[in-house]
Amino acid sequence: MSARPQKHSLTLRGHRTSVSLEAAFWDAFRAIAAERGQTLNQLATEIDAGRDGEVGLASAIRVFILSHFRR
Questions:
Q1: pTM
Q2: What's the first-to-final CA gap in the chain, in angstroms?
Q3: Are 41 and 33 in contact (CB under 8 A)?
Q4: 22: burial class by Cβ within 10 Å (0-12, 13-18, 19+)?
Q5: For each of the chain's 71 residues, which pLDDT tens digit applies?
Q6: What pLDDT shows up at residue 53?
Q7: HSE on the CB side for 40, CA within 13 Å?
C-alpha cells in the first residue's frame, strides 16, 4: 500500500473540489460512508460543514476517520 497521497474529486454543495489522502484513508473513508449509508460526497459535505475554517478538508477528513475508529 502506498503512503503517497492520491487525489480524488468530490462535490460539496454543488462545487467540485480535489482532496488528497493516502490509500488507507480513502479505504477507511469509503467504509465509514458505506456503514452510514452515505456517499463520499455526502459524508465529505458533513465533515466540511463542521470543520474550523483554518483546517484543510483533507486534514478534517483524516481527523474524522481517526475519531471514528477511536470510539
A1: 0.92
A2: 25
A3: no
A4: middle
A5: 568 999 999 999 999 999 999 999 999 999 999 999 999 999 999 999 999 889 999 999 999 999 999 98
A6: 84
A7: 17
Q: What is the pLDDT at residue 27?
A: 97
Burial class (CB in 10 A: 0-12, 13-18, 19+), 7: exposed
> Amino acid identity of 28?
A
Sorted by where each begins, the domain ranges of the chain are 25-71
The Cβ-side half-sphere exposure at 55, using a 13 Å CA radius, reads: 14
Q: How far is CA 22 from CA 7, 25, 29, in A?
A: 9, 5, 11
The whole-number pLDDT of residue 1 equals: 57
The three grid cell numbers given for residue 45, joined into one nine-digit string: 459535505
Q: How many residues does the chain have?
A: 71
Cα 16 to Cα 36: distance, rounded to the nearest angstrom: 22
